[in-house]
Amino acid sequence: MSMRRRILSLFVAAATVATAGALHAVPAASGAAPAPPPAPGDHRHHGPGQETSGRALPTSAEALPAGFREQTVLTGLSQPMNIEFAADGRVFVAEKAGRIKVFDSIADTTPTIYADLSTNVHNQNDRGLLGLALHPDFPAVPDVFVLYTYDAPPGQSAPVWNDNCTSVGGANGGRCVVTGRLSKLTGGTEQVLIHDWCQQYPSHSIGDLHFGADGMLYLSSGDGASYSATDYGQLGNPINPCADPPGGTMAPPGAEGGALRSQDVRTLADPTSLDGALLRLDPATGAAAAGNPLGASADANARRIVAYGLRNPYRFAIRPGTSEVWLGDVGWNTWEEINRVTNPAAGPTNFGWPCFEGTARQGGYDGANLTMCESLYTSGGQTAPFYAYNHNATVVTGETCPSGGSSVSGAAFYPATGGTYPAAYRGALFFADYTRDCIWAMTPASPGGVPVAANRQTFVAPAANPVDLAIGPGGDLYYADAAGTIRRIRYFDGNQPPTAVVSASPTTGTAPLTVTFNGTGSSDPDPADQGLLRFAWDFTDDGTVDATTPTATYTYPAGGPYTARLTVTDTLGASDTRTVAISSGNTAPTPVIDTPPGTLTFAVGDSIGFTGRATDAQQGTIPASGLRWRLLQHHCFTSDNCHVHVVQEWNGVASGTFLAPDHEYPSYLELELTATDAGGLSVTTTRRLNPKTVNLTFVTSPPGLQVTVGSTARTTPFTLTVIQGSANTASAVTPQGQYDFTRWSDNGAQTHVITAPATATTYTATYTKRRLAQSAITVRSYDSQETVDENAPAVRVLDGNPATFWHTEWGTVTTPHPHEIVLDLGASRSVTDLYYLPRQNASNGRIAAYEVYVSTDGTTWGTAVATGTFPNTTAEQTVSFAAKTGRYVRLRALSEVQGRAWTSVAELNVSVG
Predict the structure, then answer these.
(1) Structural contact between residues 54 and 684, judged by C-beta atoms closer than 8 angstroms
(2) What is the spatial distance between Cα 322 and Cα 616, in angstroms, rounded to a whole number?
(3) To the nearest whole number, what is the mean pLDDT of the chain?
């Protein structure tokens, strides 16, 4: 849900679509152009109890390869997250808020509630009921497994937050700590198998559940860390509420909290976290399955882990006939990954997060100089993704799927044998991206083989908010649309059914209500059927055909609501059906958002109050029970590529408050008020709230070095626009070549969080060239033509004490000659600078004119690498020159201040590359 940040927000909220197709009707939506996201104050009218998300839906079968059609099979759902098909034909659907609905079949329109876990489930941002699995022998073994975010911190009982974290600074304030729970439901009774997964931030929660061919239960989970900042456990108040090792306040290099929980299994000396990992479990107990790679560990959690180093493995699939696990891991701002665990019994496999994203080092965590990552960079051992795609690149060249943002959100394997799809799809991996609204197929080289990363094709473009993929009865691909539907992709080898498109106007009004219907947008992909479609209108959905023309009118008496149905049939009898709701004698209510005003702008953490009301021509004032509020976060990657997720919901209230959440820019908030009247008509109005922004400029001294802000290292100077009050992690990358970080202008640590101020601010990271440790240097020789003061030996130039010094014997000579001192660096090095500190508190003996030489053997010096004159000062002097490789460095004093024929040096050092 960072970013993204990505965020990687996977959830948009809505309920159902306004029209639906029958089982023999394959298109997903009517042919009318999809509505754009509503402008401020825009009103959206829906049928009884129906809402839309405002996101575009597929409008044509042309979005799929030839012969494939999309069909909406189940509607009326609230944020469906997971679909499971039982052997007895039943369909189980997990809704994000905690309800599991059961349909007798995909033709069922009246589901029952199998279990309602909403009291326990924390449903906010990316948190909720996300994982669902049926026992392989279901229903003979009537066990249903669920994985959800538990609405309480460690050691407490739900509900604690009641899906509202306003009292502790909002869900992204670092104080709304929750946990995760794996449970087994038998007849609706919950048996907790694992309660763990401390999560400080509202994304990267728990993930997916699947049974393997070995009968073991596989489970994925996110890192529970911030999606917007480099998080190693230093964030929030109090800091480290999850008690991550080493405990207490977190700081580099030893911190192991935040996203580093994903690497925790590497440090078995302390308790192991389950965050950011893939588990293989005994479904009877939730304990580690026999044969796990760390089965001999004394730590019960370590024994459960078969793969780790994952950020947000939201969905995964197991390749049929094998034990291979293929995980879709949602990335930060650069890469989405598909990771392959070839053998869960070997390893465990480390996919590298947060030290790596894609195949490269992750800039934000690399810049923080954390031991957990630095040791991995040195030792290696991470496994590269099977396939990774960049957020700014398309998955398939020339496709219509947008780029600029991503969140891989579904995975399913087509059977290696059987099914109705063409042979090329046998064994193919289907994977989806919620942000891009697309589904792709990765096909094998030959039917039933291992998918080939290069064999990618666009399969559904656009798809409707896909958050889960599954292969259902008959071998068709199904996907859950987070906006409230379940959709099926069918293949027709031969005659293609038509696409029914219906429009009706008006759909509400006083009785009698005359409605004009139009089906002329209907079409058929087969040339032989074009212009020969047959139309059948049933205006009251009672099974009677009322008209057979492409257009028709019908007058409705008071009552209803009514359902009008259009069936379009081609010359070979294939048909498609669409419906539309009509309400006669009832007009839609009018909702009004009174506050906040549309002119309001916000900073992160601002408390924003909202009030609203609704009136209805038939009902008068709509009571508060008929009002529903939602706060939506829009994160935009380009002007036409934004994804939306729900921050918070309020039902049955006329007013409330919320804290403006943190998010990277560009983004904005949308406050949505839906009013529903007694007749079931609903209308939604929205108000856009824009953030207050500020420019943060980052520079380095010297210029041109790199600084990491958030997830990305950039060459300075650069300027970022962020939201006021947002948390921005800044790391001065060190070392860089011969430069080491010294200080930030705001006195922050090398890696620290900058809370964006209200005014534009420049942050400077100061670097110094790296000096060779004085303990690594010896004085090889010094002036042999002068006696030396026995009380001032030459080694004093290396003692680190500017109050001590070396000098030649006191006195003057008639004919001065050069004095010199030679340093032995102990090994050949690239030397770029010499640092000379004159003797303090005296004017005699300071070097004026000088020469500097570098030699490989201390005998042959060649030409001077630098010459010049030092000013008459007690300050340290730097002599810079082009890098030269050598073991010995000589400083020659050609003349001294005031003409004295002796030389003194307090400190002498060099910088090396």
Answers:
(1) no
(2) 59
(3) 89
